[in-house]
# Entry
Amino acid sequence: MTAAALPSLPPVLDLIGTAVFALTGALLAARLRQTFVTMSFFALVTGVGGGSVRDLLIGAPVFWVRDPWVAPVCLGVALLAWFTPRKWWEGQLLEWADAAGLGTYAVLGTAKALAYAVAPVPAMVMGVITGCVGGIIRDVLAGRPSILMRPELYVTAAALSSALVAAGAVLDLPHALVWPLAALAGFALRGAAIRLGLALPAYRKG
# Structure
């Protein structure tokens, strides 16, 4: 597969996924009672951080620099968060939306890396980076423990989706079958973590 032949998510769905991630950044800034400038920065970094790092690592044009809609969507989300009560966004609705975005973007990040001739295992890592790095940057900037340092199943869910895409590529299975199943698997694992509190065991050796 060449980069030019890479299938992509429909633009509207792609922007919706970016908006969900951006909203998590904006709402964290709101909880910290930051200014609108900080809120906008958190929204942008969270929305595009993972995809930007992936593109830089695989030698692809940074996606949001080429797409004229991505940055305005992130800023629009920041405006939405600024002018609405925070209680509208409390509860688990945003977590479930984030879970859907996590699985989807892990799939697309892996697929894009494979299209740029990245080997399957590094491509899988690119999928995890796409789904998780924006949130990690957001948490580090906010001075709180990042998702990478918490035992809950988050990065693991992205890794599951990415691994299934990489395996499908090795086995030459059709994208139309593998990609939706991979995204659903990551979403289901993250959803189980949300509902049941699933977490990885911590290191306990003396």
Summary: The chain has eight helices and no strands. The chain has one domain: 9-196.
